[in-house]
C-alpha cells in the first residue's frame, strides 16, 4: 500500500522561509513517494481569527500559490480546503470524548500560543481544542507521515494518543502518524524571536520582491551587544548567521564572515548584503513559478477544487469505517 502524507498550513498569510525549511522542503522531496494531501486549515485559522473571517479566502489562494511556487506538483499532491470537508468536524466531535482537559493544559505549544495571543476576552474553546481538530485532520486521511516544524510535535503526539485510544476502545481503524521535522526544526524570526511566524510579523515571505527582501534583511536583528563594526560580535544566536547557515550555499564565504564578525573586522551591512544576495538566488525561481501560477487564477482554483474533491472522498470513506467501529452506523434508512 502506498503510504500517505498529510500536513498543512493555516491561511493566515502567505508562506515564509520558516515554512520552507520546516516542512515544504520535505513535502517536495517526498511527493513522488507518498500520496500527499495538503490541508489549507481555514477552520483552524478561524480559532484565533474569528473576528476577521474575511482574511481567509484570499489567503487560501496565497497558500496554494506558495505550494505550487516551491515545486509541489498539482498532478501529484492534493490541495484540500479544510472547511470543505465537513466530515472533519464530525470526527473532531467524536475525538473530543477521548481527550481530557488536563491533557490539553499540558500541551506546551498550545500553552505558548495562548500566551502569545493574549486573548483579552478569555480563551476561546475553539482555540483551546484545536489540537483535537488537528488530530482529525491527520487521521481522517489515514496519514503515516506528517512533515512539520518542531512546534507541531506536541500536536502529533496528541494525535497518536487519540489513535491509540480509539483503536483500543472501538476497532483498529486509524493509523498512528509519525512526525517528520524539517532541515531546520524552528527557523527564528527576523526580529531574533524564537520562531518566524505569520502572526508575529517577523517573516521573509517566499513571494517577497527583491526590494522587500532587501529591506527585511537590512533591518534584521543581529547582535545587540555589538555597537560598532569594530566590536567583536556573537555569531551564535544571531539570526543573520542562522539564515546564512541555512540559505547561503557558499560555506567558505559564511565561515569567513563569521570569523571576521567574531574579530570585529566586518560590519553588519556587509554580512547582510551577502545574506540578501544568497536569499535572492534561493527565492528567484520560487518567485518566478509563483508569478506564473498567479497569472492563471482560474487554473489554481481548479487545482484546489479537484484536490478538495479527492480529499473529501478519502475523508468520507474513513468516516464510514469510524462510524461502524463506533457502532453508530445505524440502519435506519430503507
Ligand atoms: P500562524 O502564526 O498563523 O500560526 P505560522 O507561521 O506558525 O502561522 P502555520 O500555518 O501555523 O504557520 O504552520 C504551518 C507549518 O509550518 C507547521 O508545520 C509549522 O511547524 C511550520 N512552521 C511554521 N513556522 C516555522 C518556522 N519558523 N520554522 C520551522 N517550521 C515552521
Ligand atoms: Mg502556527
Helix and strand arrangement:
Elements: E1 4-9, H1 17-30, E2 35-40, H2 42-46, H3 55-69, E3 78-81, H4 87-96, H5 101-106, H6 108-117, H7 125-128, H8 130-140, E4 145-148, H9 153-169, E5 178-181, H10 210-218, H11 239-247, H12 251-263, H13 268-294, H14 297-325
Parallel strand pairs: 1-2, 2-3, 4-5
Helix pairs in contact: 3-13, 4-8, 8-9, 10-13, 11-13
Explain what you see.
By secondary structure, this protein is mostly helical. The chain has helices spanning 17-30, 42-46, 55-69, 87-96, 101-106, 108-117, 125-128, 130-140, 153-169, 210-218, 239-247, 251-263, 268-294, 297-325, and strands at 4-9, 35-40, 78-81, 145-148, 178-181. The protein has a 3-stranded parallel β-sheet with strand order 1-2-3. A two-stranded parallel sheet has the order 4-5. α3 packs across α13, α4 packs across α8 and α10 (210-218) runs antiparallel to α13. The longest helix has 29 residues, at 297-325. The chain is globular. The structure holds adenosine-5'-triphosphate and magnesium ion (MG). The site of adenosine-5'-triphosphate has 18 residues, from α1.
List the main descriptive attributes of the protein structure presented here:
334 residues; mainly alpha; two-stranded parallel sheet; 14 helices; 5 strands; binds adenosine-5'-triphosphate
Question: How would you concisely characterize the structure shown here?
Answer:
It contains 14 helices and 5 strands. The protein is mainly α. Helix 9 links the parallel strand 4 (about 145-150) and strand 5.
